[in-house]
Amino acid sequence: METPPRTRGAVRGGLAGFVRRSPARLAVLAFVSVIGVFTALLSLPGATSSGERAPLADALFTAVSAVCVTGLVTVDTATYWSDLGEAIILAGIAVGGFGVLVLASLLGLLVSRRLGLSQRLLAQNETKALRLGEVGLLIRTVILASVAVEVVLALVLLPRFLVAGESLPAAAWHALFYGVSSFNNAGFVSHAGGLPALDGTSPAGDWWLCLPIMVGVVLGSLGFPVLLVLRDRWRHPRRWGLHAQMTVAGTAVLLVVGAVLIGAMEWGNARTLGALPWPDRLLATGFASVMPRSGGFSTLDLTEMSTATWLVQDALMFVGGGSASTAGGIRVTTLLVLVLAVVAEARGDRDAEVFGRRVPQASLRLAVAVGLVGTSTVLVGTVAMLAITGDSLDVVLFEVISAFATVGLSVGGTADLPDAGKYVLSALMVVGRTGTMTLAAALALRESGRLFRLPEERPIVG
Amino acid sequence: METPPRTRGAVRGGLAGFVRRSPARLAVLAFVSVIGVFTALLSLPGATSSGERAPLADALFTAVSAVCVTGLVTVDTATYWSDLGEAIILAGIAVGGFGVLVLASLLGLLVSRRLGLSQRLLAQNETKALRLGEVGLLIRTVILASVAVEVVLALVLLPRFLVAGESLPAAAWHALFYGVSSFNNAGFVSHAGGLPALDGTSPAGDWWLCLPIMVGVVLGSLGFPVLLVLRDRWRHPRRWGLHAQMTVAGTAVLLVVGAVLIGAMEWGNARTLGALPWPDRLLATGFASVMPRSGGFSTLDLTEMSTATWLVQDALMFVGGGSASTAGGIRVTTLLVLVLAVVAEARGDRDAEVFGRRVPQASLRLAVAVGLVGTSTVLVGTVAMLAITGDSLDVVLFEVISAFATVGLSVGGTADLPDAGKYVLSALMVVGRTGTMTLAAALALRESGRLFRLPEERPIVG
Ligand SMILES: [K+]
Ligand SMILES: [K+]
Predict the structure, then answer these.
(1) How many angstroms separate the CA atoms of A415 and A81, rounded?
(2) Which spans are transmembrane here (chains A, B) (predicted)?
């Protein structure tokens, strides 16, 4: 029986109304639903290699980790889950990563529509999709570009696994898995125990394996608004628009700073960088600098790094990647807007300026909100996890920020968690994944009804 | 031979010019000079009870800790230093505390003069001294009010020590020491091993000892601009002005939140609160909530508290007390301005508003600067201390924030530091003490020479 046209129209109208009224809430709802579906799938007895139903805490944690493209695991992906289970995880990554990109772009579209003409004209150079303003085309572009990048990465990685003696089906599966996992900044690995030591010693010096994964992670962490600009105007940085310029510059600075700090701190550590010949140390340093933001792969034993290096990684993870990307954190532009405001203040300028543009006050207020809410979330999550686990702050802070920023790196605090800890980290991943994105969009979409302004008074600050 | 009038005039003019041009730099210079003098004094052989010259690292650390009214110690104050040494420390606290108050008030005066008439009229209700605009009166007011409060505190404490069987000179000395130490938020104790267990078990349930110290610390942490307003208009909160209203309200909220969290987390801990009868638990909870911001006294064994409680204290310490007070941290109003901006953003309002007033954008930019610079300082200090000490992050972060915010609480990381660690913590105390205050003033004093504004462009944030 067909639904009568009038009812269908009302349903469609109501849905459209809900989307218009609270797109941020819709985004969260969509994410939670998808997580529910993948939790159910991973609870199938056939999803585990033992054939026993996975405990709810592990099924939920893994589903959240996959859909939120985090990569934290409570069980070893390759040994605990069956082939079916791994396929479900890969599907979760693909759906989650794609969902993030589409939702972020849609929210961006809504925001740019509400900002009025002058703002919209400026937002035009953000993505072609936004300019064309068509949801269908947007989704098609995201899918096509993602698949294209992932297939290229897989094709580059395939011969590496074949050369190492893997069978064609196994090599193809791993190549595809790492292609999807890296471009989506998911951090899941399909080999038992982490990235494979294909030459027998360690993956840390395996240039052929590491470089494609690094490229995939960095590209994925920039975000589609930037990727599309780069594709169209690669040779003309002045025409990239402020957002792409800030994201690329900020990413470059963070990569260099991270590499210098991690390299300096671990260079002589015989259990991490110190064990490698020095060209490989450079590779491993670069890899370790890329992955906190927020690829989540690792070629060195993080538990053997100094706690000072952990804290540097904490900071890199907290900042995360680009806006509207599969990377997490408070985002590169958020930090940059805050830093630019401080620089302007120090120079006595009223406006934060960069690349010949003025950053609006509204962006600063948004950045303060995202930064403060992010800090509070990490603080509350850390206090809760300290109370639950009894682990030291070094470990707990690392795992909490890794979850919040959907990074997936671990220094060992996630493996043997009590169920309460698994649920708290799951909540942090969901909040971290949907939070900053929807918070920023929701705030940007608000409009004040107030017409009068109160008298101004200046408190003493600092 | 007298200096010729002309030279004298030139010198005076040059000095006045320096004060006008860079008052913030002058404040730092004054602090460093005072620290140098007290380091020299504590390096006298007679300053130690053994009669041997104290090592430079300990003399410097103690001088910095006293002048910056921090209270962190590398040696036990009562046993390591002689009577002379303790008197030097008390003098350091008095000079440092007084210096902070005068410098902060002077900087406030300069800022309010530069802000133009409308701003100055609003700033009037901050302190009587600012309104009268006379440096001499300002200094006299600060001295008289400080001495008055400290003497009252000492008079209340004196009989407590007499009742406990101390001789009159000893009791008077301790009463004076705690009066000065508490009102200046210094956190130094003159009894061996910490606050004394006068009834033989623990100071945690000693209401007569704890309450005056708590009152002294809270009053001192509000800052003179607030204290003078309270003295004159105690019964008329609506006429306190925005700064005093924000400081008092923020302090009250932080005290309650701190007490609830610390109380909840330690209530059943048999080594801290759990060891006390329950009325005393309330006192000890209140005491533990007051002291992180930034009195620095302790009646419970902090090393026995859970690491989750440590992290709550870290957050309270980082926020600290009121502006232009002897308390440290980024200051209550700084946090409040940031939170109000987020609340306004969430409600879709353009302006941050509170108590019927609009907080200017300039205050938000200042708060962002103080918050971000403070966070960066703690981060860099923590990485350095992790690398130097090899202690766990729990301990290192606590000691670093305690130093930066001049709190003086310790969970054991300061007692056996290598010299490099002592110097880093000393630097953090100086930066924390002079930094937020002078940073805020320096930034507020800047004026832009730029007349044109660049075109605006909006990056994606979050
Ligand atoms: K990840
Ligand atoms: K103190």
Answers:
(1) 15
(2) 24-44, 56-75, 87-111, 137-158, 206-230, 242-264, 315-343, 364-388, 423-445
CB-proximal residues (5 Å) to ion ligand 1? A 71, 185, 187, 294, 296, 408
**Is the Cβ of B116 closer than 8 Å to some Cβ of chain A?**
no
Answer for the pair B156, B223: CB distance below 8 angstroms, yes or no: no
In the prediction, which pLDDT does B461 show? Answer: 67
Question: Which phi and psi (to 5°) does residue B48 adopt?
Answer: -100, 155
Cα separation of A445 and A452, whole Å? 20
Q: Do B462 and A330 touch (CB under 8 A)?
A: yes
Neighbours of A416 (CB within 10 A): 10
Query: How do strand A352-354 and strand A357-359 relate by DSSP bridges?
Result: antiparallel
User: Greatest CA separation found in chain B?
Assistant: 74
Indicate the SS3 state at residue B161.
helix
> In sequence order, what are the beta bridge partners of B353?
B358
CB contact under 8 Å between A460 and B225, yes or no, is yes
Q: Please say whether the beta carbons of A287 and A214 come within 8 A.
A: yes
Phi, psi of A76 (to 5 degrees): -65, 120
* Residue pLDDT, tens place only, B68-83: 989 899 998 888 999 9
Please state the ipTM of this predicted complex: 0.84
Q: What is the DSSP string of A323-364?
A: TTSS--SS-HHHHHHHHHHHHHHHHT-SSEEETTEEEPHHHH
Q: How far apart are the first and last CA of chain A?
A: 68
CB A173 within 8 A of CB A87: no
pLDDT digits (tens, 9 = 90+) for B255-281: 999 999 999 999 988 888 888 888 899
Give the distance from residue A46's alpha carbon to the nearest chain B alpha carbon, in angstroms.
39
Residue A260: count other Cβ atoms within 10 Å of its Cβ.
Answer: 13
Q: Supply φ then ψ for residue A352, to 5 degrees.
A: -80, 130
Q: Which residue has the tokens 């046209």?
A: A5
The Cα of A170 is separated from the nearest Cα of chain B by a number of Å equal to: 39
Contact status of A420 with chain B (Cβ, < 8 Å)? no
Q: Say whether A122 and B457 touch across the interface (CB within 8 A).
A: yes
Question: Which tokens sit at A334?
Answer: 């958020």
| Residue for token pair 């302006």 | B351
The distance of A458 to chain B (nearest Cα, Å) reads 6
Helix B168-183 crosses helix B135-163 at what angle (to 10 degrees)? 140
The confidence score (pLDDT) of residue A128 equals: 38
CA atoms in the 13 A half-sphere facing the CB of A319:
26
How far is the first Cα of chain B from the last one, in angstroms, to the nearest whole number? 68
Q: Helices in A359-412 by DSSP H: which ranges?
A: 361-389, 393-404
What are B358's strand-pairing partners? A456, B353
Cβ contact B365–A344 (<8 Å): yes
Q: Which helix (H) or strand (E) holds B1?
A: none
Sequence-separated (6 or more) residues with CB below 8 Å from residue B111: B123, B441, B444, B445
Residue A239 pLDDT level (bands cut at 50, 70, 90): confident
Q: Percent of chain B scored above 70 by pLDDT?
A: 82
Residues A342 and B363 sit within 8 Å (Cβ to Cβ): no
B264's tokens: 């909840």
Please state the domain extents for chain A: 22-445
